[in-house]
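B., you asked whether I could sanity-check this one before it goes into the benchmark set. Here's the sequence:
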Amino acid sequence: MESPVEPLAGTVEPPATTVVGRELEQEALASFLAAAEGQALVLTGDPGVGKSALLNHVADLAPAWRYRVVRAAGVEAESQLPFAGLHQLLYPLLSFADQLDETHRAAFDVAFGRGGGKPPSVMTLGIAVLSLLAPAASREPVLLVLDDGQWLDTASTEVYGFVGRRLAGSSVKLVVGVRSHVRSGFDTAALPELSVAPLSPDASAHLLDLHHPALDPPTRRLVLSEAQGNPLALLELPSQLQGGTSERSLEESLGYRGVRLPHRIQHAYGVRIEALDTAVRTELLRGALDGVEAGTGVNRTRRTRYRMTDADQALSSGLLDIDPTGGDYLFRHPLVRSTVIQMATPNERRAAHTTLAQVHRNDVERRATHLAAATIDPDEQVAVALEAAADSATRRGGAPVAVAWLTRAAELSESQEERSRRLGDAAFIAGHAGLLDHAKRLVDSATASGTIEFPASVITRAYVALYEDGDVRSSQLQVMAAIVNMRDQGTRESDEVLARLVNLLLIINEYASDHASWQRAHALLASLDDRVPADSLIYQDAYSDVVRRGAGLSDRVERAFVDLHRLEPWDVTHLGVAAYHVDRLSQYRPHLERAVGETARGATTSNMTMLYLLMLDQLAIGEWDEAERTGERSLELALSHGHALYAHHSRAYLALLAALRGQVERARQLQATVDSWARPRGVGFLTQIADAVGTAAALSEGDYEAAYLYAIGITSPGTFESCAHQASRTLLDLVEAAVHTGRTGQARRHALAARDAGLPDVSPRLALTTYGALAMTATDDEEADDMYRRADGHPAGAHFPFELARIRLAHGIRLRHTRNHRAARRPLLQAAETFERLGAPAWSERARAELRASGASAPASSASAASTLAQPLTWQERRIADLAAGGLTNKEIGARLHLSPRTVSSHLYRIFPKLGVTSRAALRDALGTVLDARGA
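And here's what the prediction gave me:
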């Protein structure tokens, strides 16, 4: 661990900034600077309470502690410009960008509008920022000082929050000033906070006397009373009270009695602004509307801002300061800037915006912003400029801003057709940003006049209908009609929109899970010839029917993931769903984990999808506690955004998990909720999962008759229902239920159907369960042994422990029934251990009962099952030990379990002493001895 930062010897001097009555805050900031590791701190408080003074104090103090200080400030005028705040703070450090890898350099290029590519996610950009800070801080510690954080654009705030939470271990500190009672992204950034309260009465009196020593007693008393400990009020109110002759006249001169203090301070500034010449007021208004800085400690970037001139009158009135580095006018305080804007008439503001649009004629986003504010009547040129700005913002990752600009462009459109088109585009972006209500309102506005509905509006309307209410029928018809219309028009320029329509149709049909609907979709896509993207063809085969269209699909998914950087966030989720259908999620899990929680901006729905995909992989590989937490998180996110479909989707998988764990009551409650919502709407995807929940719950209870009835509701024995995704996934369920209810013929027919359909070639899980089903139903002992060997030794077993444990349980039961009790004990004990580790007590008890029937002393719990070891192996250690005992190298084990060879080596280092061995060669015997000891 690094030692605490120490000041340079003999150089610690009082900072230039005079701070009165802030001993506790100064002590906290000194400790913040001295801390050994990087960290973040947010100062919160009312306007004028002294946050900026404290930020100046820590910035003045930092050089004595060897810090390089980099400063920035949020500005209201730039709060709608994506990444403006990030660029301002990082500008002095961009010289280090040459040391970054291509991915992170590209992230900055896209975010700052210097290059093309897909918008970077918050995580990608945040990691790029951390990577940029690393070489900068390697020479000297870096202190990032950010004032007025409440005015930062949303995109920058999200990145700052990401970075602030990950500074531990670095030499970088981030301190932010944020105004209380103004909503900002820092409210939910989970960064440490320091509240800056008003000054004490003694400190207030000292500050007032320091700056206004000549006040007469009545005026001094009134200022102290009205300022309420606010330092800015203590400095500014006295100038408003000059000339009062009585306490009553002094009170009247304050104006606006009974209103909040910040407004009274603004009133004090307003009196001075009113006294300025018209030309000076115009200069101040242009500067305020263009975000000229307030204070003298902010970095200057290369961004062009209006340069105020001939404003010495405002300088002498205490409204402006001079930038000591460049000599430009700066506003004395952000409240001066906002007061200037509030006092201007609408015509004055529009005239100023017109001038500023010309100043920024080479900046597409800033020019459009000012043009929009300067324009009242419809103006197609301004609308086109706003549309271009929205396109720029979308490319850079500023989806919410793009929605606002497209909406304004629609308002300024001269034709109804263009207005509807732009509203439809805004609605599409809003829908993917998770703003369903906003998207719906935009679509309604776009189609209210009865004009032709544009494809973007169709996408959004269908999207909202699907995710908000599970309406697969009408959304399906709308999207198919739009695709037919685009096909018949034959224009190639809109292929991107066509691809979006196609992908949405595939998602709708996946949820419908209806054979007739899929047949219509297959025919429609075939009629589009080469206009259907290759990735969409992957989705088509994966979402519809892997039993009949799954040959070679796994390889196509793998090839598509190789070129992941070219994909939009929603395309990554589409591929993730395809990977789930061929049971390959685990190998792409790092992509999901990187995306979850720090998703690409404007892709909230993609984040929900990634969450439930992550849950599915956790459920598959046996991380059931983690799966439950992820499922609850997915449910919470879906409910908070009004996505009823995703909410019931999450409930369905939570129900399945509960059923596997034997939590039957909870499983059936969730099952009933999902089924009663999905069945009337025709959401077959969810009704099939509900039936699978019923099957799993019945199997947990040992009610094989009920399990069989649920299973055949999904597909009939000996067949795999077309376009029913659960038909192949419940293969083992149907076979096992049929065997236990004496329907051996149906069970055998179903197992052979799986083999004949080539399911072992479709996915590793289907290979495992097909071999298990064939083994369970084999009448010939030699065939049964061969199939059990295939299943037990299949590489997929490590990724699907629940299925493997069930097959081992069936194997042990068969061996016991053939009087080979000793041979039965090993698979039965392995099954019991797995069920206990997973948290499936009903299955575990069944395996222990079979163990006892085989003559073994079955352990009562996983703890006692491991009692022969001084320290029991963890689930992960046991998987690694088994694979190492089988002769696999660390690299091969890592590839199979998606771990690094170093991590595998670390696990083996802990496994050897637990088993009492010193080499890999002794592992097999040691593991066998443990199993024999338990099963004896």
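One thing to flag: The longest strand covers residues 172-179. Otherwise nothing jumped out at me.
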